[in-house]
């Protein structure tokens, strides 16, 4: 597996992307803004197709579209925090633009036969097709996003758990909201190249949801979410090496979904055990207790 240069490139890029998705996704789930991640995944698709339609670098459309729309969400929302009504209206408009740019691009590229391939790559990602320079860029962006998020983690957590009290204590709630939305946009733009816009939400939500099921401690949850996201990428790449006929994105999302399902089962089992009444170990002791009560 490690003798293949494309696999090493995928591991480097995937590690940076997974770290960013795990950390950003934790706050995304904690702040009940998963719909924002879903919308930005489609914004990534629309931005990439717009860039391709106008003949410019695909990454320009990815990052510009995701960051600008993320800021728009914050501007239209309350205290820099997008609400579902705003996201729903912008979402519908973005989907319409996506269809328009896809039609424009595939029509212009119909003679070359490359239009469909590029569209599929934007939708489902191509982590094994990244160049070494793109992998290093992905790692650098992922580490930068992770570092910024860790620097603002404490006030962001305060603003997330009790927004009103945080604002009264002087925490810049609106500025933090805008900053967090920009981080989501950057993460979405970078991660789309690896797992695609259709599967981006899974990498943002599944590791974070799993971490929140396993622990109530926020910093441990952050670490667990990031670790699970990296594990999803690594195990997905390993499974791709073992079963190459299935796409890498499928394996990554499968690992994430199975892990989340296992966490749900474990969480429910633990709650059931806590709610169950204590049972005496010795039947004779139980009978003695009943006689004494009578």
TrEMBL record:
Q: Which domain of life is it from?
A: Bacteria
How does this protein lie in the membrane?
Answer: Multi-pass membrane protein
Cellular location(s): Cell membrane
Can you tell me where the transmembrane regions are?
Answer: 7-29, 49-73, 85-107, 127-153, 165-188, 194-214, 221-243, 249-266
Q: Which UniProt key words apply to this protein?
A: Cell membrane, Ion transport, Membrane, Transmembrane, Transmembrane helix, Transport, Zinc, Zinc transport
Primary location recorded for the protein, binned into one broad class: membrane
Stretch list, region Disordered: 270-294
A single Gene Ontology biological process assigned to it is: response to zinc ion
Return the GO cellular component terms, semicolon-separated.
ATP-binding cassette (ABC) transporter complex
Family membership noted in the UniProt record = Belongs to the ABC-3 integral membrane protein family.
Q: What does this protein do?
A: Involved in the high-affinity zinc uptake transport system.
State the name under which the record lists this protein: High-affinity zinc uptake system membrane protein ZnuB
Species name: Actinospica durhamensis
